[in-house]
Design brief:
alpha/beta, Nucleotidyltransferase, domain 5, six-stranded mixed beta sheet, 11 helices, binds 5'-O-[(R)-(carboxyoxy)(hydroxy)phosphoryl]adenosine, binds zinc ion
């Protein structure tokens, strides 16, 4: 499926250097949030609605077919509500931005097809957006200073990425997970502890009362890899950590003491996961020589993680992040990334797909130069998120 649209639909709407930037509608349906937002020409949020699907709670995880069906049921209502909040009529819209990849393919297709039909009917451009690029644009919605250069730590249910962003549109992949994403690990550990889906916020809350030292969990690929020459140096792995929690939980469950140990297990797991995230981010900061760091994606809603990052970066460092509402999947970040992509549509995601690299992503040039970790494939995207 091609991107469709094109900039031929420009009318008397707000433009910048000939490029439409607002009011723009952003649509997000890649996973289990149906969201729409309307942004003004300066990137200000005029309306934002996020519908989090609760149908998955029954199953303790996302059921792709149900996600797609629920998006279809809600999308018109969600967009109408966002337009209503913004007091913007459909015919006043300048463009429609939509998440085209990566994600659950059925879920993506609902949002993309819906947005494409809208754009076609209104005669305005359709701007396909990469979901992880949208997460990079989350913090700038609330803080105009959250712009490159920065090292980005993107942490969600489907991704764990360390990216050097010298300018918008140039994304050099420093590290990524070899197996589970960190959000996925939070969710799976949550399930092991009998917590509702999604496990991330539940674990964070439970961990506040727990002793992180009571159970010692591994810090995968943190201790072992010590130099940039080591291919593990900037990468992550969370499946072993999840297994370690599972192996600790099993005997506790058997002897009936799991309930009283849950908060300590949550604290121990969170501490280990955050140690790895912070440790690897610091490695990237030192290697790149930039102390401006952006943390994005659903897991960046975790205050414990953000506090640790701020502390690790010290007084010379700066951490950019979103409020929890904009850290999770939402249409505003999609609209904001769409404003950026409006003048380079040919470089947008061209296909609706479960997996696709962020447009403009390459191997980290620094590591190529130093002969360190070596060439990397562009940011790959795991199916399912
Ligand atoms: O970005 P996001 O909303 O959706 C994806 O693109 O995947 O991220 C969702 C993930 C889930 O795994 C959820 O458990 C995690 O973000 N999450 C958290 C917290 N809030 C959401 N993880 C840890 N602590 C939190 N407070
Ligand atoms: Zn996301």
């Amino acid at each position: 499926m091609d991107a469709g649209g094109g900039l031929s639909g420009l009318g008397a709407r707000s433009t910048f250097g000939g490029i439409v930037i607002g009011p723009i509608l952003g649509v997000e349906t890649s996973c289990d949030e149906t969201s729409a937002a309307v942004l003004g020409p300066g990137g200000e949020i005029l309306g934002l609605v996020i519908h989090s699907q609760d149908v998955h709670h029954v199953y303790g995880g996302i059921v792709p077919e149900l996600a797609a069906r629920d998006h279809l049921r809600r999308i018109t209502l969600v967009v109408d509500a966002a337009l209503g909040q913004a007091d913007v009529k459909r015919k006043e819209l300048a463009a429609v931005a939509v998440t085209a990849a990566p994600g659950l393919i059925g879920a993506l297709l609902v949002g993309y097809t819906w947005a494409r039909a809208q754009a076609f009917g209104l005669g305005i451009p359709l701007i396909p957006v990469h979901h992880m690029e949208a997460h990079l644009f989350g913090p700038v919605l609330e803080n105009p200073e959250a712009v490159p250069p920065f090292v980005a730590l993107l942490v969600s249910g489907g991704h764990t990425l360390l990216v050097w962003v010298p300018v918008w549109g140039r994304y050099e992949l420093i590290g990524e997970t070899r197996d589970d994403a960190v959000g996925e690990a939070f969710d799976k550990v949550g399930k092991l502890l009998g917590l509702p889906y999604p496990g991330g916020p539940e674990i964070e809350a439970l961990a506040r009362q727990g002793d992180p030292l009571r159970f010692a969990f591994p810090r995968p690929m943190l201790k072992r890899s010590q130099s940039e020459d080591d291919p593990d140096f900037f990468d992550f792995s969370f499946s072993g950590l999840k297994t370690a929690v599972a192996q600790t939980v099993a005997p506790l469950e058997e002897n009936g003491t799991l309930e009283s140990e849950r908060m300590h297990l949550a604290a121990g797991f969170q501490e280990a996961a955050v140690d790895v995230l912070v440790g690897k981010t610091l490695r990237a900061v030192r290697a790149v020589g930039c102390t401006r760091v952006l943390v994005g994606g659903g897991v960046s809603a975790n205050k414990f993680l953000r506090d640790r990052l701020v502390h690790a970066l010290g007084r010379d460092g700066t951490l950019f992040y979103s409020s929890p509402r904009l850290a999770m999947d939402n249409g505003a970040m999609v609209a904001r990334a769409g404003q950026f992509r409006a003048d380079r549509l040919q470089e947008s995601v061209q296909e609706v797909s479960a997996r696709a690299p962020i447009p403009g992503s390459t191997a980290w040039q620094g590591s190529l130069r130093s002969g360190g970790a070596g060439p990397r494939r562009p940011t790959s995207i795991k199916e399912g998120h």
